[in-house]
Amino acid sequence: MAHHRRRFRLILPKVQWRLIGAMSAVAALALLVQYTLFVRCVLEIASELPHDGDVLIAQSASTLGWVLVVSLAILFPILFFVAVAVSHRFCGPLYRFEKYLGAVVEGTERGECRLRNGDDLQELCGLINRATAAARSSTPASGATPAATRDAA
Predict the structure, then answer these.
(1) Which of 8, 13, 38, 44 is most buried by its number of CB atoms within 10 A?
(2) Residues in CB range of 45: below 8 A, 6 or more apart
């Protein structure tokens, strides 16, 4: 089987956007909790200062807000790329299964389903091959090129 490099694109956009959204929500929540704790600490420190506590509070509000915005701006692009890269290991095989099973149903596929090394769901691929073996052997050859050598996107 030829080695194919994974492309950086959304294979199953609905699934991958949901994953990216969930990861982003957790990351944003974590940053907001951290921001709240920072503000609380600064307010405690400011209340213990004999002088200039009000100045510290006034200065820290804008500074901590700026830190939160910069943290979000740095985190979200990194999170997007990590989420897409991680999701390829299981979204690629799901996409491959969908195309493969469609070809088996149409009668254009006689070979076994294959996944790239390192992809998740290898056991499911083997189970699909066992489940479709009878259908693939009884399907008349249509002259189509077997998709067994193709890889998931």
Answers:
(1) 38
(2) 56
Angle at which helices 13-48 and 53-106 pack, to 10 degrees? Answer: 170
Helix axes 122-138, 53-106, angle to 10 degrees: 20
DSSP 92-116: HHHHHHHHHHHHHHHT---S-----
Q: pLDDT tens per residue, the chain (153 residues)?
A: 445 555 667 888 898 999 999 999 999 999 999 999 998 998 898 888 888 888 888 888 888 889 999 999 999 999 999 998 888 888 889 999 999 999 988 888 888 999 988 889 999 999 999 998 887 787 555 444 444 444 444
Q: What whole-number distance in Å separates Cα of residue 105 and Cα of residue 30? A: 46
d(CA 53, CA 45): 8
